[in-house]
Write a structure and sequence with these properties.
By secondary structure, the chain is mainly beta. Helices cover about 5% and strands about 55% of the residues. The two termini are about 20 Å apart.
């Protein structure tokens, strides 16, 4: 006879597969995003980003012909399937402004169906973006709490991929990632009073392959953390995080330079962007809740927006 715990685990996995449960991909708890067995987490983050300038293919800064304004609401769920494995999913509700649209205008006296196409800037779109489903696994040996690998699937939803400002890549994606962090045994709760232990670090990288000639991408980050109070840099205490993010997009079958930053054909040209982010995190002792606020700015890039972002997030973590 199957145990009640087994049935519950099967039910949760089925629900996730049906996309009824959603989660915030990339949310880190055990330093590398792996929960304890039967731990669960709900997360949400709201991000505003915008730019009036962009880098061209030679990394020159140009004034954009329209003002890029994006909003992203990520909501989610993660579940500690076992001590070694955490399953997760993510969904993104998005708003995009500053794409390229096409007006099709009929010409009086012209043959039926004849239209003139005129491009315009500041196209807008909003709705449900991509969904991500994945599993994250601890490394063994001496790296149980500070190293993990993950595999994931990105699923486009029903948004219009031909929209002036597409809400996602618009193609099925498969990915693989690695995450590392400082060892929890070196952190504040265990060695309080040693100033060197007020610091922590984490880093990671992920490669995503997109089908349908959408081009592939590589995203990498590195961060250092400083604790103001006794903190594990994850789910307790107050700490600051200083983070560098780099993303690279690879051209796939296209030669036209991407002028409109939110343009739907996201693989027209090779691109990259490097940004700096500062985040403050606070946990509410004894409640399972934690929150964060952050600000970021892109300072180096090619065929990418010179954007600034602000974000706020909340997380609730519990065990049945």
């Amino acid at each position: 006879m199957m145990s009640f715990t087994y049935l519950i685990k099967r039910l949760i996995l089925t629900v996730m597969t049906m996309l009824l449960a959603v989660g915030l991909s990339g949310t880190a708890f055990a330093g590398v995003g792996v929960l304890e067995e039967d731990e669960q987490s709900l997360s949400a983050s709201l991000t505003f980003s915008g730019s009036n300038k962009q880098w061209d293919g030679n990394r020159n800064v140009l004034t954009s012909i329209c003002k890029r304004r994006n909003v992203d609401l990520s909501i989610g769920y993660e579940y500690g399937w076992s001590y070694f494995h955490t399953v997760y999913s993510s969904v993104n509700l998005a708003y995009r402004k500053c794409g390229v649209g096409i007006n099709r205008t009929a010409i009086p006296g012209a043959p039926a169906g004849f239209r003139i196409n005129t491009q315009y800037a500041s196209g807008r779109a909003w709705g449900l973006g991509d969904v991500e489903l994945g599993i994250r696994t601890r490394f063994g040996g001496h790296y149980l709490d500070n190293a993990a690998w993950e595999t994931f699937l990105i699923i486009p939803t029903g948004y219009d991929n031909n929209s002036p400002s597409a809400l996602g890549r618009g193609a099925l994606g498969l990915g693989f990632g690695l995450k590392f962090s400082s060892d929890p045994s070196d952190r504040y709760p265990y060695k309080w009073g040693y100033s060197a232990k007020k610091w922590g670090w984490k880093a990671g990288t992920k490669l995503t392959y997109f089908f349908s000639s959408k081009g592939n991408s590589v995203a990498t980050f590195a961060a250092v953390q400083y604790a103001f109070t006794a903190s594990d840099f994850e789910q307790s205490g107050d700490f600051l995080e200083f983070r560098i993010d780099n993303s690279i997009g690879f051209q796939n079958g296209g030669i036209q330079q991407q002028v409109f930053i939110n343009q739907a054909p996201s693989a027209m040209t090779n691109s990259d962007q490097t940004s700096f982010k500062i985040k403050y995190s606070h946990s509410f002792i004894g409640t399972g809740w934690s929150g964060s606020i952050s600000i970021g700015h892109a300072f180096f890039g090619r065929n990418a927006p010179k954007s600034t972002s602000i974000a706020a997030g909340a997380n609730y973590r519990w065990r049945d």
